[in-house]
Amino acid sequence: MTLLIKVRPAKLAAIFIVTALVSAWAANSTVNVLYAGSLVNLMERSAGPAFEQKSGDRFQGYAGGSNKVANEIKGKLRRGDVFISANPKVDDQLMGQANGDWVQWYIAFAESPLVIGYNPSSRFVDDLKNKSWYEVLAEPGLKLGRTDPKLDPKGALTIELLKRAEVFYSKPGLSQQIIGAPDNQAQILPEETLVGRLQSGQLDVGFFYSTETSAAKIPAIKLPDEVAPKARYTVTILRDAPNPDGGERFVSFLLGSQGRDLLKQHGLEILKPDLSGNAQAVPTAIRLIVDAAQ
User: Fold this and answer.
1) I want to staple 268 with a disulfide (CB 3.0 to 4.6 A). Which of 110, 180, 187, 238 is the partner?
2) pLDDT in tens, 206-242
3) What is the chain's Cα-based Rg?
4) Helix (H, G, I), strand (E, B) or coil at 262
5) Is the Cα dihedral 272, 274, 280, 283 positive or negative?
6) How wide is the angle at C-alpha 229 spanned by C-alphas 228 and 230, nearest 5°?
7) CA–CA separation, 232 vs 146, rounded Å?
8) How confident is the model at residue 28 (pLDDT cuts 50, 70, 90)?
């Protein structure tokens, strides 16, 4: 037997209104954070859940190479509230009318040097422990992974590292021996998959930020300061953010004491918040945190 229930038009309209309000509240409570792929562990396992617990907002993250994400923002292929880059130059590419004014300001908050991570089961481990790293990376058969220098700051810093190494160790042609061409597709992988490829044994070594090897407990070779460039992480709230208030809460959390503690736990070097761009466009709560840290 089919039971039919009559609902008065006025009551039906009220149901639709309540449903719409609930949907709107749920949408507004989600904070979309677009972030550098090297921060996957930090964002998904630590910062995201801790932010949700403290704020009541829902964290929704998207990871990718910083340049790649910036291109998606500029091309209106991806929307977000907060953007976290591994290089201030990426933010600069989103500033100004010619670039869509997607970024009006950004704050540098942490750094992480480039290191060489390796799989502890690799057949090259003994060599890595007993020989110069640049000799081992040039050995036949070694499987090396890195990110695309056109899409990811880490990939560009890898090229810079090898050029520095040529000078520091007086080894001209070292970069060519280790990676071949900068766009050598046999080595280039998406940033968000590089750690997993190394851990699964598909790679012997890879170029990572120290925060990645620290979080994933990957053994790593620390390089001299004269050789290893650093990622410089920045955070901002994007123009036309769907949830700017939620974005403000997230940035305040990240720059606050609890956020800084999580950054340290993930091997990041904490910076005094360094503001660039239009200071007047920075939300008051965030500006107060920056001012207090000076």
Assistant:
1) 110
2) 999 999 999 889 999 999 999 999 999 999 999 999 9
3) 23
4) helix
5) negative
6) 120
7) 18
8) low
